[in-house]
Structure to design on (438 residues):
């Protein structure tokens, strides 16, 4: 029999998330937390958005969360933004403390937006808010049109919903109307974007949204 | 400050997994645990395999694990096998006790194989063995060729590795050689299959493997 002292992990996380948010608000930095299945295309979207925003003179940094490897941080840096890679070493989500420590490693002077890519997982990250202004759920066409029904918490708690890989619609049975209907049943208020990193569809609209939200955070 | 009595959750799970395995061995039933990301195609593979094995007179039952909904169990029953749906209510993986209870609800007389579809998640299910003879990892082409490197535990601990959705290779940048090279670095012994539920590629080979393993379990 083992007796172990437990603190409320979620309570601690929530406090640190609030302090992350306060820091971003004070420094006028918009923060987005991208969640989605492995291979839903989170990094590809960030590559496109980083390129587009950099071309407009907007300063962006990225915090990459992965179980292992620095592949995603390397891709982001090749796209033109500084990236800080967190390896969770098996952990299935980022928590707010990891993000807080990562921010201490980044030079935030003049930064307009921080993008956080969570561990590829449509279940666990939903329970651990990081303090971001927007939690962005990325679903993709090859995953199937029933994902909102099967992973409802992620969609219910999302502040933005992205359907990615629209270029694959001709090759895959996917009922777009059904996807958005199921999504609307859980969350009818989150802004939605349909994008493709291959064709570029929707990237401009997504960047436009981010630029508007940066202006709001800067007040 | 809260003090809470903790038992070793993983230790308990391991004991129940061993008892599941003993029961399957005694009854001459082959058990396979399918793990993979949301939308990797676990249910589609099971639909095809169930149809093929049923046509050969092999009796199969399926235990479906999902955060929410009975979609997958309905699809399996439409394909011709009895299915028992477990909803974890937010839980990110099945554990052995859930499977043990599900088996008590199924009539196992004359059953040759049990397929368990784990919650769509490439991280958490790896830590909770269910007692199955084979842990099958399903990856899919749209997820990208770097998945073994990014989710190493799932590939390292797999007994069978399936690359699904090979029909999408013409439409997606995916380096098959790189995928299997990264996979081999973690696990060079697990049997591997490349399949497509759309074209039918590889389904026969996968079924042949299952039939041979059923014969071994029946001794």
């Amino acid at each position: 029999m083992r007796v172990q002292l437990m603190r409320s992990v979620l309570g601690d996380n929530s406090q640190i998330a609030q302090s992350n948010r306060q820091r971003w608000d004070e420094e006028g930095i918009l923060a987005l937390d991208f969640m989605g299945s492995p291979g839903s295309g989170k990094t590809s979207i960030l590559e496109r958005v980083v390129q587009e925003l950099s071309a407009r003179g907007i300063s962006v940094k990225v915090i990459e969360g992965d179980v292992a490897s620095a592949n995603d941080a390397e891709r982001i840096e090749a796209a033109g933004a500084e990236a800080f890679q967190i390896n969770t070493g098996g952990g299935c989500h980022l928590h707010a403390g990891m993000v807080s420590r990562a921010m201490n490693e980044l030079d935030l002077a003049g930064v307009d937006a921080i993008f956080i890519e969570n561990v590829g997982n449509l279940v666990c990250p939903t329970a651990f808010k990081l303090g971001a202004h927007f939690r962005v759920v990325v679903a993709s066409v090859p995953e199937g049109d029933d994902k909102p029904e099967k992973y409802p918490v992620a969609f219910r708690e999302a502040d933005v919903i992205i359907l990615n890989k629209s270029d694959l619609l001709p090759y895959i049975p996917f009922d777009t109307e059904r996807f958005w209907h199921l999504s609307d049943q859980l969350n009818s208020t989150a802004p939605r974007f349909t994008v493709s990193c291959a064709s570029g569809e929707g990237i401009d609209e997504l960047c436009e949204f981010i630029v508007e939200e940066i202006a709001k955070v800067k007040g």
About this structure: DSSP finds eight helices and eight strands in chain B. Confidence is low (pLDDT under 50) at residues 1-6 of chain B.
